[in-house]
Amino acid sequence: MLTDLHVHLRSDDLGATAERHFTTDNVERYTEVASERGIDVLGVSEHVYRFREALEVWRHPFWVENAVDDLGDYCGFVRAETDLRLGIEADFVPGREDRIANLLEGGDWDYVLGSVHFLGDAAVDVGGEWDVWRSEPDPDKVWSRYFATLGEAARSGLFDVLSHPDLVKMWGPERPSPGRDPRFHYELAMDGIVESDVAVEVSTAGLRKAAREIYPSPAFLSMCLEAGRPVALSSDAHTPNELGYRYEEAVELLGSLGVREIAVFEHRERRLVPLGWES
Ligand SMILES: [Zn+2]
Ligand SMILES: [Zn+2]
After folding, report:
1. Which ligand gives the minimal distance to the CA of 238?
2. Beta strands in the chain (DSSP E)
3. Can you say whether residue 74 is alpha, beta or left, with left for phi > 0 and alpha for psi between -120 and 50 degrees?
4. Integer Cα distance of 133 and 143 in angstroms
5. Which of 27, 42, 109, 209 has its CA 20 to 30 A from that of 179?
6. How far is Cα 193 from Cα 22, in angstroms, rounded to an integer?
7. What is the 6 CA–ligand 1 centroid distance (Å)?
């Protein structure tokens, strides 16, 4: 089986409104492409910060600008009008664990993706005003902080899946590379990951970005597999055409590392299904 659980029904543009995208017509565009590409389990995971309720967790100016939709309407739409699995991509905000838990408690999620996009007030995946590389030019500091925060996210127990787990590499050659062996930085996440019950996302989104690599790197993925963590396979699609993006490469990578099963979720219960295209 193949899954795509980290999927957005719209782009990250502020102009991509809920009214235009949380519709059965739009969902049909996604389900058609998913079935053409052999994706058996399709779920959606909108960004938590696009919902007003997220402002109870954090009032970062980027969130304030984005938080215009109603979380209950999103959940109600997915449950009542689609066959999609219901997920959410929730940011890990250190120190706000109780507030994140409160926010998530209200939802009937099939799964919760946990993402580290921000280090303090600065983001690892957006350019411009909030770009982390503006305030911290030392790549080893950025990478260390990112992986330490990822480990905390795992340890928090708030999430079913750690999304794009080495997102800090997103800019590829457009930002400085760490001087240290990346495994030094990966190790900073491992205690939290070892002690958690979280699945690790393998995401082909990195292939679409300047990094030109699957998230996470084979070395980091191997460390997570050695720790006994299961894999969740996704594309982080923001359009129907991005569903299952270059999955051949992800399936090959997973096969080369001996992964034969991937995770699926229902009502936050995880089970493993065989990995691969149905023959
Ligand atoms: Zn993300
Ligand atoms: Zn995403």
Report:
1. 2
2. 3-4, 41-47, 85-91, 111-115, 118-119, 122-123, 161-162, 199-203, 231-234, 261-266, 269-274
3. alpha
4. 11
5. 209
6. 34
7. 9
Distance, CA of 212 to CA of 245 (rounded, Å): 13
CA of 89 to the centre of ligand 2 (A): 6
Say which ligand is closest to the CA of 167.
1
How far is ligand 1, taken at its centre, from the CA of residue 279, in Å? 32
Coil, strand or helix: which one is 30? helix
188-218 as b/e: b if 16+ CB within 10 A: bbbebbbebebbbbbbbbbbbbebebbbbbe
Residue type, 190: M
pLDDT tens for each residue of the chain, 279 residues long: 999 999 999 999 999 999 999 999 999 999 999 999 999 999 999 999 999 999 999 999 999 999 999 999 999 999 999 999 999 999 999 999 999 999 999 899 999 999 999 999 999 999 999 999 999 999 999 999 999 999 999 999 999 999 999 999 999 999 999 999 999 999 999 999 999 999 999 999 999 999 999 999 999 999 999 999 999 999 999 999 999 999 999 999 999 999 999 999 999 999 999 999 886
